[in-house]
Amino acid sequence: MSALRALRIGTRSSKLALWQAHHVESLLRAQPGAPPVELVHIKTEGDAKTDVPLWQVGGRAFFTKEIDRALLEGTVDVAVHSLKDLATTIEPGIALAATLAREDPRDALLSRSGATLAQLPRGARVGTSSLRRRAFLARARPDAMLLELRGNVPTRVERLRAGDYDAIILAAAGVKRLELEKHVTEYLSPEAFPPAVSQGVIGVCARAGDEATLRWLAPLDDRKARLAVSAERALLSRIEGGCQVPLGALAKGDERSLVLTACVCALDGSQALSARGVAAEVAGGGLSVEDVTALGERVADELLARGAARLIARERAALAVEAP
């Protein structure tokens, strides 16, 4: 009997990306008869362009497209991504083979003094690289001084401790995965700070026709996470947003019922448009991906009917003027 071909996992080299890749590796190795696994480090545009805000970098998929290219070229067999970084339209020939169980989807505030968001002094310097977080922060604390924050999670925490910022906002999932929770001052409520679409979920991709690889990835798929992110990604796709749009969304529930809430916010916090929808199983059959995709599209249509397209167009125009 011939030896099983090794599965090559493509990953970025940051501590969080490597944690995610090793986590997938451990899940694969735990399966009876699993093949050997190798990690292949790949540098992405998002890793290379650290001197400009992400929203000023042209295009999308800053942290994924080089890994997906390696996947299509056959250099790697598996791509591991933070699903929130993956474009809603996946490259032809690539399948989102597994969505892992979701970690905490919320944003987390880390402050030097231990002050919560409400307790921070007027004019506090708050670091974030996300337009979404900047918008909702401007709405919650219009007096705050918003500063750009790039680098991997440990680097960002070190910059906070060094005094570059009074507080920073990070995804709770990354903080928890790297066991840095002791630095968290406050977990921000999804009502005030709707998280990024798919935040907290690891997405695992493979070539669409690579059955030898897909068979090992299928058991890693978490149904609850798959339904939630399918609804959120359908909403984002319908609104045609990306990481350059201040939109947050979160789906909560299980295989029988799912509630999706979403909000688009002006960058200056002056206006916010929200929508909510529910999908429920029919005759005890459980929800399908088609059911929750339709939910995402319905909530998106409600946002658009309330003026989300105009708000997004206005914000994009403002960004185009501000970009160097």
- H/E series, N to C? EHEHHEEEEHEHEHEEHHEEEHH
Share of helical residues: 25-40%
CATH architecture of the largest domain: 3-Layer(aba) Sandwich
Please state the overall shape, judged from the principal axes of the Cα atoms. globular
In total, the number of domains comes to 3
Based on DSSP secondary structure assignment, what is the total number of beta strands? 13
Low-confidence stretches: none
The end-to-end span amounts to 60 Å
Question: What name goes with the CATH superfamily of the largest domain?
Answer: Periplasmic binding protein-like II
User: How much strand content do the residues show?
Assistant: 15-25%
List keywords for this structure.
324 residues, alpha/beta, D-Maltodextrin-Binding Protein, domain 2, Double Stranded RNA Binding Domain, 3 domains, five-stranded mixed β-sheet, 10 helices, 13 strands, 34% helix, 22% strand
